[in-house]
Fold these 4 entries.
Entry 1:
Amino acid sequence: MTPEPLHEVTLTVNHVPHQLRLPARRLLSDALRHDVRLTGTHVGCEHGVCGACTVLLDGQPIRSCLMFAVTADGASITTTEGCLEPDGELGAVQEAFHDCHALQCGFCTPGFITTITAYLETHPNPSEQQAREAIGGNLCRCTGYQNIVAAVLRAAEIKRERSAP
Amino acid sequence: MKPAPFAYLLPSTVDEAAEMLAATGGKVLAGGQSLIPLMSMRLAAPPALVDINRVGGITDIEVGDDAVRVGALVRHAALEAHAPAYDANPLLRRALRHVAHATIRNRGTTVGSIVHADPAGEMPAVLRLLGGSVEAVSQARGRRSIDAADFFVGPLESALGEDEIAVGVVFPRPPAGSGSSWLEISRRRGDYALVGVGAVVTLDSDRNVIGAAVSLISVGATPVHVDVGHVGADSAYDDVDWSGATELVDAAISPEADIHATADYRRHLAQVLTRRALAEATADAAPRVAA
Ligand SMILES: Cc1cc2nc3c(=O)[nH]c(=O)nc-3n(C[C@H](O)[C@H](O)[C@H](O)COP(=O)(O)OP(=O)(O)OC[C@H]3O[C@@H](n4cnc5c(N)ncnc54)[C@H](O)[C@@H]3O)c2cc1C
Ligand code: FES
Ligand code: FES
């Protein structure tokens, strides 16, 4: 059997460029976990339903299990590890998850952190209903969602506090 | 599971993509939101993928006097957010809001969902309801346009040839004095609909009904399109009895049972949603008729 051809792929992950040689069928989720070795991105269903693998592609949330890494060549990716403050402190959403006890086993958490981080960029002051809608595409089998909704609202508050002069 | 190996091709023009498709017998990769799950589950194992994500000239939304034309690389989210497209044809946004979750809409293309021809997909039914068309390009046949009425052949089956690329779709504007509605019921927000109904109702200058049609999803092998214009014909917009329309719809659909709903429940939903969607579209049309 001839070996699978490899493709040169450059991914900038959390501001750090990575030059990779990958088979075309490597899912972006697997490239992040196995090749870039950032295991914060979790893989649950691997067909787009659970949301655990959500990362930001040029700032927009996408399912990393529904994209081949070759298609993302040249793109800038943000994973849950990158949802920090520039000084390395916990990001507003991460801090809010801690404050509100918005995780139990933590398997779903990376997908929530990325999704909510992007959402608050465009919706800085969500209502509770909007917070529920924002996380509608992410499944959590532990928490019952109440504390996650609270964390969305708390994260918006933290962001406002941090940007206040 | 992981996708099987495939040859990866990255064209930069439509002609190059058509040539690659013909040469390899592969499949087009657009947003991947339907194709990649099928490959990961090993329900599909195409020998080659022609990734059109870097092809030029297919990224635009063009809002004209007669229609909104959507290029093959327009993501659901971009069309949903496009203000001129909404002004020209509010039904597009009304239906797109029900297509999966926002995260899926950031990658999935509207043209891809139409080509995918899922009988539970919203945008195939919207294209059918508006009498739209798909523009296709292949090496063998050149460019052709396929009417929505001929395009949807069966579940996940369209009239597009295996060597053809859909470069865009055309959503005609409904006539002046028209209103629209999209309603659906799903078990959870973002899931495929148990039943969905799109309606367009057209009023004359006296606000009497002169046209009405519905297209339904998840109740047949393809979107089910029913012209119900004569049911409301000549009734004033605030005095239409749409009950005849639900009978026509009931006769046209062939819902099946699955773990989410029985066939009878789908039939019930189709009737209720048809009545509501027609009423909503009528109410939406009234203020659009210049007094
Ligand atoms: C969790 C989940 C929920 C979803 N829920 C819904 C829903 O409620 N309603 C709904 O309508 N959809 C839903 N979808 C599907 C989504 O709308 C997809 O975006 C869409 O069906 C396919 O578009 P794509 O660009 O991703 O196409 P791809 O996945 O890239 O391709 C799909 C198929 O179409 C072909 N194709 C795509 N573009 C072209 C082209 N330009 N020319 C020729 N062939 C082409 C491909 O070869 C492939 O066979 C859901 C998907 C997921 C993962
Ligand atoms: S692992 Fe990607 S959505 Fe579940
Ligand atoms: S915390 Fe366990 S799945 Fe969400």
Entry 2:
Amino acid sequence: MTALLETRELGRAFGALQAVTDVTLAVEPGELRAIIGPNGAGKTTLFHLISGLLPPSAGRVVFRGEDVTALGAPARCRRGLSRTFQITSIFPELSVLENVRIAVQLKAGGNFRLLGGRAQLDASERRARESLAFLGLEGRADELASTLPHGDQRLLEIAMAVAQEPELLLLDEPTQGLSPEDTTATVGVIRQIAKARHLTILLVEHDMDVVFDLADRITVLHFGRVIAEGAPSDIRANAEVQQAYLGTVA
Amino acid sequence: MRGRWLGALALVALAVAPWALARHQLSLLTDLLIFGLFALSLDLIMGYTGMVSFGHAAYFGLGAYGSALVLIHFEQPIPVALLAGALLAGVIAVPVGWFSTRAREIYFAMLTLAFAQLLYTVAYKWRDLTGGSDGIAGVPKTTLYWGGPSVAGPHAFYAVVAVSVVLSLIVCRALVASPFGRALQAIRENERRFISLGRDPRVFKLTVFVIAATFAGLAGALFAPFRGFASPEVMFWVLSGQGLMMVITGGIGTLVGPIIGAMVFILIQEILSSYTEHWMIFTGAIFVLMVIFLPGGLVGTARRLATRA
Amino acid sequence: MSVANVVEQLLNALALAGLLFLVSAGLSLVFGILRVVNFAHGVFYMLGAYFGVTSVAVTGWFWPSLLLVPPVVGVVGAMLEASTLRFIYRRPPIYQLLLTFGLALILEESVRVVYGPTALGVEPPALLQGAVEIAGTFYPRYRLFLVVLGLAVGAVVWLLLTKTRTGLVIRAVAQNSEMADCLGADVTRVRTLVFGAACALAGLGGVAAAPMTTAYLGMGISVIVDAFVVVVIGGLGSIPGSMAGSLIVGAAQTWGAFYLPETAMVIMYAVMGAILIFRPWGLFGEEE
Ligand SMILES: Nc1ncnc2c1ncn2[C@@H]1O[C@H](COP(=O)(O)OP(=O)(O)O)[C@@H](O)[C@H]1O
Ligand SMILES: [Mg+2]
């Protein structure tokens, strides 16, 4: 089987700081891959490199067999790669519905009508409502996104990505800052997405319970390098991983 | 709902104004509407897209020169002059916008100012065409169409201005509610998110920049025949800054707010200038206080109070 | 073009670059620390020039004015920062730009009230009057002085930023705005100090410029536009960037004025345009 996403010797430096080094990954279709590693390991930077928000300083990104290294973030998104951010990234002063509707329309491509455009709005709105319902946010569709509680804002961001019906979904610490109940709910949502939509998911996560609960495979980053990769049970037993965590996380 | 009533009321007021107002009052109202349109156009980029231009007066000035030249040299009807002014502004905005939208936020503000000063210098130095620092005087108010009635009277020209401004407002409202307009607001809210959702915002920004410049050009094109002149003053940075003040005073991102802001601002200026020639100190101070204490402007604050009540 | 000509143009470019550096370095520094683009920065340059006029008129001496005026301008700047800007740092950056625009209007008009609308000249000190012969051409001593001043201040700023502890903190904050929070309670003071210091630099530029350009209304806006171009070219927040940008703009304006007297500005914009295409964040700026 060919991989949906491959990175080859991917690297990124910020000045003298080598944030990501030599990362080679292959994510199979339908897989739920978790990326773990201590703070500052380079997980978010890796996501930026994969989604095209940052250009790499070395290496290549291949998505659905196509080398997308030279493409910007918008083009990669239209090819089926949607993401969320570690720090909640929504359109705060727009309605919840409009947040998702914009996501749908941006993915759909085509021209944005300057005047009128009722049909365009209606079509994207229908899809947006479905996605909101899927995440249990339909009741808040007309509220301003900024007025939602933190947990719902994180769900909204996932709703925006899911509404785009991507092939590959990148989730950067979706449970960050959530209460235990919200975390459980979000884990449920992610599992449901993976099942119901046959999505391939790349997940950065701090909460080890969540990771071991959800992931098919786990990749461990440390100081920007992959130090281990394998099934959850292998990773749990891996000494190097334990050392990486014991060494940096108190 | 309340907004619709207020809008209808404002339209009626505009319609009866020629009969209700004295001649100099009508002339002041014409002036207010022209600058209202200028501020409205700035709000498209500033309020709806989050791009603050410090050089918007350049397009007002281009519109003024474009219309003045057409009226003086070719004596065309007013709509032709308006079209010429608006188009000139829009066309020049394409290269400026192409460069400026490469940058964001503060860089964008600095670039628009720099390009505006460049255009100002060109207007100042290209004496053969623009009359240099004297500008172009004696711009006539011609006719409504070829062989049609003259618009030279104060009532007729007021009608031309009022209709232009109301139509512009209607078009701009439709624009911000369209799929394109909503995309602009998403860009304003979070450009990075917009990018990662699949579109390059630059095309949108350039388009709205040119549209805003075109409407500013229309305002300038009305200004030249109304006042009878076009001069480098109307491209100067002070006017760009006053545009920002009008938008902030009235309420950023509300379209009608900036029109009201322009009116309030010019009225304050009018009143202050009858007491002191150094009114700029006071408008500056009022502006500083507005920025600190009323960032939503008059309309923004009023709406907030209305929804809270 | 003769050698003499080349030398003369080179010196002119350097003199102009020196003045531009005094203004743009402060602009850049304030942006680095406060994340504010100070529209009123040019007006402080103008204040420096006018205060210089007053001080020379009162004392009859130029040199003390050169020392005295910058701190006064700096105090005015610091006071304005502490009474207005300080309250709106949490807003989107554009509000700070708007606020400083309001301040610029107030200051510009106040200068008009106090000094009237006509330009005011300043006699250069006796030592710097007349011309010296360089490479077969007579060159005004005062401009040479500007070259030296620009270089000296550039060197001092450079040393302060790279060799002192304060400079280290400032550079660290400039590079990483989140570090500002690590300074804790000191942030407010650091901001006011930096703002004041930057205004003082602009003021120094103003006093130094006055004997060459006279003090006139509108010198603030014209210098701030040039300074904006400088920082767009060099990169906001970078002192080496200001230096490089000043040199480029100084050269573009000088040679532009020589070859294309009517359209000198166009050259400067062409350079800026080219840099924007290839490096939208400036030569020394940080890519976002
Ligand atoms: N834009 C940037 N500029 C400079 N350094 C950065 C930037 N982004 C991240 N870094 C650095 O790169 C390293 C990896 O960061 P990041 O990818 O955010 O780690 P993680 O998500 O694993 O916590 C960190 O040391 C961080 O400080
Ligand atoms: Mg991270």
Entry 3:
Amino acid sequence: MRRIISVLLENEPGALSRVVGLFSQRNYNIETLTVAPTEDETLSRLTVTTTGSDKVIEQITKQLNKLIEVVKLVDLTEGSHIERELMLVKLKATGSQRAEIKRTVDIFRGQIVDVTSSVYTVQLAGSSDKLDGFVQAVGTSGVLEVVRTGVSGIARGEKVLSL
Amino acid sequence: MELLSGADMLIRSLQDEGIENIYGYPGGAALHIYDALFRQDKVKHILVRHEQAAVHMADGYARATGKPGTVLVTSGPGATNTITGIATAFMDSIPMVVLCGQVASSLIGEDAFQETDMIGVSRPVVKHNLSVRHPQDIPETIRKAYHIASTGRPGPVVVDIPKDMTTPNERYEYSYPKKVKLRSYNPAVRGHSGQIKKAVDMLLAAKRPVIYAGGGVILGKATEQLTELTRLLGYPITNTLMGIGCYPCSDKQHLGWLGMHGTYEANMTMHHSDLILAVGARFDDRVTNATEKFCPGARIVHIDIDPASISKTIDADVPIVGPVDSVLNEMLSLVKGAKEKPDADALAAWWKQIDEWRAFHGMRYETSDDVIKPQEVVEMLSRLTNGEAFVTSDVGQHQMFAAQYYKFDKPNRWINSGGLGTMGFGLPAAMGVKHTHPDDEVLCITGEGSIQMNIQELSTCKQYDLPVKIINLNNQALGMVKQWQDMNYESRHSQSYMESLPDFMKLVEAYGHVGIRIERKEDLEPKLKEALAMKDKLVFVDILIDRYEHVYPMQVARGSMKDMWLSKTERV
Ligand SMILES: Cc1ncc(C[n+]2csc(CCOP(=O)(O)OP(=O)(O)O)c2C)c(N)n1
Ligand SMILES: [Mg+2]
């Protein structure tokens, strides 16, 4: 099953490589990984999406917790949560394609953020599924370049991941 | 406040931490530190002949004393030479701090002379590693390193120290922190009472219980509690290779150790049990054999300080995360206060069954009139030293024979690389023990393959007067490899012979020690006695043993716990 694990990490050099090293060392999957500082400058927030049986996921969370620099973590997929990913896509856009792309972008609530005579650059945020859906809808033949940030997530409601 | 250079702060921090002995080898990036070491006499340094040996020495010291070991080496090759030793300590959860020099900060990343990313290289085999970024951080970094290494589930911690952190003429205010606080590191201090209660209820209701104890009992200094609980309940107990000595092996409740080369009765008892109380053990693959066939009728209570060890390979029915000593103490008082008592009839029937398994004598060997059997050498050593020696070992058949036939009644006496299986561990580990236990008998039971992996340390033994006794069970082969080739590769002995062995007698004499060679059975006892009588000499006893011997029992690969070979022809 796919899981989103959100981690508060000491904002120290080397902490990230410990997390990444753990995944490869123990043969766990990383599908996406994002990391950035938080409002508290001593902490980074890291979100990793992974897949595995319940037993594997339990080991992943336990092993992550053992890392000295991991302060706290939560498996967001255990409760209701919001997940978002940002994508920038460069599309071939000439002639009638231009209107067609514009319509599709509107349907997906994206934005065209850069325009040349032959290329549109589209920005789209949403769940990973939605981003996949957009790429499918515009057709891969017109896609020149795709860049995605990986998933960030947060729990719904009052629950917070903080110290 | 006192002003000290980084190097002086480092040594002073070791003093304030109570560290008396360090093991190491100097080099460019560590020279400021070595100079600071020279200008004091509280911290004693042992100069080894290879950095790997320094780590094994510190490891042997840690295993015998229960205190963290300390290593000091230079950057680059000095640091990378420690890796096998660090991995050895990591796999067996041994507390240790390894201080590594590093090139100056300004050179890091430039492929400078003797630069290695030791933080990166060591990462998978340490509990944690730290690098020093400001000289003022040295005291706190050292305090943190020892704190992390020796609390919770212990393990090695590497500290990387760039040369400019220890510059002699730059001085800073020194004070050693009493405590460190790490918001993200809080090992459990006691187990969950509800879980402990549940475990005790299950324990008292069991009909076919068994206690399965691991190295965690020794590391967690809980052998007394374990012994008391086991005796109070009257239940059978077995332990892992790492747990040897956690319960007196001469006691009638003790079944010997379990797993791949464990006793028939221990493996049978585990397999047929209805309740396993696992204490400080981790259901390693050398214990469980095929996990899907593991002890089909057993419910499992698992006590461990490391939550990640619980339900990793075998699911626990009642997990208890906490220090083994405090959890066992709580269990003891619950058992003492409980109205229910263990079911006496069921227990009597269970013991009757176990005694039948015992009577089957799973651990036996054929004696011979002319060749010396390795098992009889170990039995004799056990008798001649009253089972009280510290015994270190290397890896191979000799290690298994030592563990099977030496009768350990005390913890911290059996010292071997159980997790990583590091050949070359035995001699330096024995040196680490002897160095701090000069009046105790220290034996290194080894093989002619393993001993050659750190034989240069005979020189260190001379320099520091470390009269260990090296018992070389010489089968002229990489015996354990050969045994597997006999069993699984139709005796094709690919690269398992040790051809052109050195003349060990000349070799040890060259290093300034005494050599004794034993070839005939009738010489065994008198010559072993002669060796043991030379209290203040390192004696290398080279014993020509049966070249064709195998270690039994041996679990059948991919079978259950109870599937074993008992000899070359007998399979149960
Ligand atoms: C450093 C290292 N290399 C290889 C091995 C694999 N190995 C395990 S036992 C063994 C043979 C050991 O030979 P010896 O020390 O003579 O012991 P014996 O089995 O003959 O008693 C080998 C090569 C190991 N455990 N460690
Ligand atoms: Mg051999």
Entry 4:
Amino acid sequence: MITRDAATPASGQLSVGEMLLAHGIGRRGFIKFCTAAASAMALPPWMGAAMAEQLRNAARPSVVYLSFQECTGCFESFTRSFAPTIENLIFNVISLDYDDTLMAAAGDAAEAALASAMRDHFGNYVVVVDGSIPTGAGGAYCTAGGRSAVDTLREAAKGASAIICVGTCSSFGGIPFADPNPTGAWPVTAIVGGVPIINVSGCPPIPEVITGTLLQLVSTGQIPDLDEHRRPKAFFGNTIHDRCYRRPFFDAGKFAKTFDDEGARNGWCLYELGCKGPTTFNACATLKWNGGTSFPIESGHGCLGCSEPGFWDKGSFYSAESTPQWGKAGEATPKQVVELAGITAGVGAVLGTASAGVSRLRQASRQKAAEHEHQGDE
Amino acid sequence: MDLLSFARGPALKVALAVFCAGVVWRIAAFALLRIRRDLNRPRNSLFKYLGAGLYTIGTRSWPHPEFIRRTGAGEALGYSYHMGLFVVVLLFAPHIAFLGSLFGITWPGLPNSVITVIAVISLTLFLAVLFRRVTSPVIRMLSNFDDYFSWFITMLVMVTGLAATAQIGARYSTLVAVHILSVDVLLLWFPFGKLMHAFYIFPSRAINGAILARKGAAS
Ligand code: SF4
């Protein structure tokens, strides 16, 4: 939890409300903004006003954004948030003290900004992490300013009030963690403990889920309700399948068989084309992407399940969830099945012949014994 | 590796291997058993007694008129849930995708609502079958662990399948994983228990019929 002390502006420091006023944003406008953000987070409508009130009087909490073994896709997604927008968030709500992608400073000046944020706000700053943390070769696969990701994360975690893992890599290891994991990559939860960790998974996560989670954390000071993978239930409480507009076709048993058949053109369910919607918890089907424009299934492609742990190692993206998965290569092919059946049937035939042979031998010896007995009687 | 990957991956592979080897083993052992030579002169021609064997498959699949009042309902119950099971196994879209990936062919399925109704009816009939087994003194005396375990594992597959479709009790991925794991257990048990009746039932009727016909007896 973010402490009240941290949320109270120090003397000479402007509160969020004062900052907004200075930018010409009045109370009403700010409540509107918070209500929109609260509704995006599926929070009750009164939460918007409560969040606005709390934020108005609070100091802008310090946030440090650490990028490790990642592709910057999550950060790209973060910058495309519509409600709240990233500029609104970083200029009015939080104090983004370190982010090596966005900050103007570089080199020693950037590292000094990180050190001073951690020193000045010890115990109260929020750490946002994207990317997995490679531990192989003594952490040498990912370094910044001569320090390994694993050391930076451990140090940053010591004074953090909470850690938000943005993206599947920091949440669950993601693609770097996928077999054979050459860099010894791990998610944040495997490296640090003793601090609340929120996973905002997705490859990348939905922009509004990133900003919404951050906003909810800094405005309420509370860790949101999390699922068993530490993801905010407000966004990860339902599967894509639960909210998918193609669901009636699934229920009616109408499936596209290829990406360009009649079923695909009619918008039928993509289950047989490998859609992972039934096992994927995320808000794509409700919040959608690009300000609510659409989401992958609406564009004709099945869900890849990118917000679930180990999504990269769960077999082919293009085989249905109920299909057998044969080793690392993905689903079983009929050829492999015939091979397996051939070998095992051969084993069965040998065992069967042996069993019948044993039975015949036993019968023969029993018959012999009976004949012997019979002769003895005579 | 998560539970679902395990269930549809290595567990399924081992289960299919044991199923396949076990079924061939038992069929081969059965087919190669020593049959005592019947030294009597056949009372019917070869063609006739083999035909009678096939005919027995039909006649033995329904009670003799004399017993129909006593056992007809029980047999009808059995046939009904078997038919329900076949429809659910063969015509539910995720099952078609499963079988299609194993055998390389797919076919049209039925809407989920129809499948669900059939599955619920089959499940109810399956419970009725157990009720009949435990309440009838004769059937109860004839039943052993094999009967109850075979019933239990089939029931487990049905219940977990329904739970997964309705998404009751746990996450869909967990429910599907448990469903596939129960299928894996069923495949492992299949060759060694009474579920083997799927392979034995018709040949054994035919063989009995043929042997009797050879002796000149009606079957
Ligand atoms: S397209 Fe995917 S998520 Fe949508 S109904 Fe079909 S399987 Fe479910």
